[in-house]
Amino acid sequence: MKLITWLLALLLLVVMAVGGIIWSGGYNIAADEPHWPLTEDLVETLRDRSIAARQSGADMPDLDDESLIRAGAGNYDAMCDGCHLEPGEDSTELSMGLYPAPPDLTMEHIEDPAEAFWVIKHGIKMTGMPAWGKSMDDASIWGMVAFIRKLPEMSEAGYHELVVSSEGHTHGQADANDAREESATVHVHADGSEHVHED
């Protein structure tokens, strides 16, 4: 019984200490100040375990399909290279200001495509990595996965040639939805409800 009492007292002290640090503002949340080593280890473990527990179940297409890679090139160039760079770049203004630093995908080989798909689709809290699945369909996200798998092998010229040959920035099914919405007229009724008429 004494041991349980001591453990509860210790737990209470830890909670009070953590609460005191949070409430005092003692922890510097600035992006130009690195985490404490313990905080960094905990956050990295939390991230890795969270992704591993959720990434299964995605239907993976043929990631060597040239058309899929080409489609991914246009989206990567429009949406990703500001943080994750393109061949020949060491940094950008955006990549230098982010913490944690985004991975340089021109140098980092993707070992687990399912994990990359999950990260692109759902994003990661408090890193600057958006959840692109809110605006892009799965096929478009797989295109980016297919492209970034090939990115470390590309030259500057090869990168730009592939981007130019792509259809540019496309969102797949989301593009069709946007086009439908642009061709529709929305009427707002007196009670606040809306009715959409296709033009």
Please describe what this structure looks like.
There is one protein chain. Helix content is 54%, strand content 5%. The protein has a two-stranded antiparallel ribbon. Helix 3 (66-79) packs across helix 7 (138-150) and helix 6 (113-122) packs across helix 7 (138-150). With 199 residues, it is mostly helical. Residues 176-199 have low confidence and may be disordered. The protein has a domain at 60-180: Cytochrome c-like domain (Cytochrome Bc1 Complex, Chain D, domain 2). A hairpin with a 5-residue loop joins strand 1 and strand 2 (194-198). The relative contact order is 0.12.
CATH superfamily of the domain at 60-180: Cytochrome c-like domain
Strand content: 5-15%
Number of strands: 2
Helical proportion?
Answer: 40-55%
Rg, nearest Å: 23 Å
Output the CATH topology of the domain at 60-180: Cytochrome Bc1 Complex, Chain D, domain 2
Show unreliable segments.
176-199
Q: Total number of helical segments?
A: 9
Shape: elongated
- Roughly how many Å apart are the termini? 75 Å
SS-derived structural category: mainly alpha
**Major sheet: order of its strands?**
1-2
CATH architecture field of the domain at 60-180: Orthogonal Bundle
